[in-house]
Amino acid sequence: MVRARSATTLFRLGSWIEARRIAAILRQETIGGVLLLAAALLGMVWANTPWSARYEALRDLRLGSAALHLDLSLATWAADGLLAIFFFVAGLELKREFVAGDLRDPRRAVVPVAAAVGGVTVPAVLYLVFAGRDAASGWAVPTATDIAFALAVLAVVGRHLPGALRTFMLTLAVVDDLIAIVIIAVFYTRDLAVTPLLGALVPLAVFGLLVQRRVRSWWLLLPLAAATWVLVHESGVHATVAGVLLAFTVPVVRSEKAGGPDAGPGLAEHFEHRFRPLSAGVAVPVFAFLTAGVTVGGWSGLTHALSEPVAVGVVAGLIVGKAVGITGATWLVARFTRARLDEGISWADVVALGMLGGIGFTVSLLIGELAFGPGSASAEHVTVAVLTGSLGAALLATVLLRLRNRAHRRLQAAQSTDLDDDGVPDVYQGSRADGG
Q: N or C: lower Cβ tally within 10 Å for the chain?
């Protein structure tokens, strides 16, 4: 069965290859999301026990070479070092989507990109309205979407959502994080040292040259990646930027001379398979454990923290701003391109995913520390607000997604999803990249 599709249809059915790939990523991120939540809960509980001093001592433990200006606390190593792995994987995923994925078609790419921009702009405006001028430096806190947390919720309660919606959510979260890293580099770099920054281009260029020649030897690539990270860190730019820069040098297709995106997987997919488990299973949970440990002081302390203007701005940005920004930007794309939603998809689906985008955990916590300084009262209020806002957005999104999941399950039961001899469901037959 071949489905007729308009060139101006939003959320068109993608390829079977992409559907399988997205499903695999969701399975991995479900595990990562569970570890993330467990680590954050452990950190917060430990910080509110009589043994909180031991937690703080662990977080403040300093390791590294003072001569290289790398005498850093464990919390800083997690924020600057481990999250560089997270952004490396995000960069690989983003490049793969736009070079070899369904989103290499600009008509497909414009929707998640516009939604990500809307999901950054509206929360920032809402934050400034509620937080006021005195806390304006934290405007970017509610702009980020946590990939692991959001995709874990989507994988658990949205299993019957169309593949196009899953791809939309994944791409939106990745683009969102790319915007966040640009914001960090531009707006939260206070003391820029140009010489180390220019020096970082040397190992970065050599790394790029080697991966373009399909070199996989870790003993060559790892020292170059580390040197790039150290020099970016020394420059005053947040060191996680190095992860994105390194990812963008990695080739996506097997050979640029062998037919473009259809040539087969390249090093990007190889590195993603290697580093995604490290990112989701170690880097992000450790960062969450060392960041989420804020002494709340009981119910009265929690209510006091959430009543602060900075916390109100963060919660409003995550729960309201994200849903309005993502849904509104998507609607504007449809309005000005005269596009329509694909068959079986409604605006309720978009609202549910917009609410899911309000889970702004990992990068939001990072920006909070950069904006107000680790250990400051405002940074602790941000942490409480990010945890509360993310939990609220997750619960609301779960309710909406469960309702839409039931609707899509009934719709799919009424359609033919039988497998042909090639192993591709009927609904994907005729897709321009179904691999058949």
A: N
